[in-house]
Amino acid sequence: MSNKVRWGILGVANIAVRQVIPAMQQGSWSEIRAIASRDLAKANQAAQSLGIPKAYGSYEELLADDEIEAIYNPLPNHLHVPWTIKAAEAGKHVLCEKPIGLNAREAKSLLTIRDRTGVKIQEAFMVLTNPQWLGVRELINSGRIGELRSISGFFSYFNRDPQNVRNQPEIGGGALMDIGCYPVTLSRFIFETEPRRVMGLIERDPDFGTDRLTSAILDFASGQATFTCSTQLVPHQRMQCFGSDGQIEIEIPFNAPVDRPARVLISDRGGQKETIEFPVGNQYTIQGDRFSQSIREQSSQPIPLEEAVKNMEVIDALFRSAESGCWEVPS
Q1: pLDDT tens digit string along 253-264?
Q2: d(C-alpha 301, C-alpha 84), whole Å
Q3: pTM as predicted
Q4: Which residues does 219 contact at the CB level (< 8 Å), separation at least 6?
């Protein structure tokens, strides 16, 4: 009898069928047992192609399956909180795609549900359990680049498909919610505290109304983080951490490679350079296994739900700042 946690998948989103499910199937602690879609044919097709034993034609049927212990929720952003609540009330642990809700108020509602049901709920920021980012934080904490003072990020792609959920503002589309959330959470992760205030600048698409170009400043007690994200620029991603004695550049910060080692590049004030490689691995496999392990061992989950709430508070404040033209305090 396998001791792996038995997972069900809500929906057939691209990220699920192309990346997360195949990765979790390689894990030591995770087993994908079922997948659901509102279109049974799509569920059957995904189940057959991915070797998943069960397919359901509704999300409700999947949540009623007593065999399933945990749910992965990659539904569109506006469905994250409603279906995470339904899953928790069905007694299932939930790994929910980022951003965990449309705003901090929604995210906070999950704290109540978690405490009432006793299940684990975690936002699926795979970067936060990725060895390269854990390694970067360890390097900074060891004093490798002196005192951390600044973090700089950039994340972009080009997509003007009006049918794409990322281009629909009413369901949580736009650059900040889709990809800007990564430099927000990673800046908080590396500084290991919350920003005191934030400033946001947004340019909106004239047809969709989504933020297509967003820049931000996060003011921390010991330094600053800045980033730009866009849904309508050439695809690019970078993050750099600057200290008093050196800097660390994360070569591929968000979509870490699965076929070669992840690399971080370190340079110091004297011009010395060093490249550090991390073992080949899949950050989605690691994410799933660490959450599954916390379920099976009844231990603390890797990323507390409270972290998701704090991240949404920063995102909310950036949206407020873009409207007010002023610094805003996350709350």
Answers
A1: 999 999 999 999
A2: 16
A3: 0.97
A4: 195, 196, 197, 198, 199, 327
Domain with CATH 3.30.360.10 in the chain: 130-281+312-324
Sheet holding 273-278, edge to edge: 197-204, 211-220, 223-230, 148-158, 232-243, 246-250, 262-268, 273-278
Phi, psi of 145 (to 5 degrees): -115, 20
Both tokens of residue 195?
């920003």
> Tokens for 119?
């299940």
Residues 167-219 have pLDDT tens digits of: 999 999 999 999 999 999 999 999 999 999 999 999 999 999 999 999 999 99
CATH topology of domain 130-281+312-324: Dihydrodipicolinate Reductase; domain 2 (3.30.360)
Count the neighbouring beta carbons within 10 Å of the beta carbon of residue 161: 9
Nearest-angstrom CA–CA distance, 98 and 87: 17
Provide the pLDDT for residue 295.
98
Structure tokens at 31: 């087993």
Give the percent of the chain with pLDDT over 90.
99
Homologous superfamily, domain 5-127+285-302: NAD(P)-binding Rossmann-like Domain (3.40.50.720)
Using alpha carbons, select from 315, 319, 318, 305 the residue that is nearest to residue 107. Answer: 305
Per residue in 60-77, pLDDT tens? 999 999 999 999 999 999
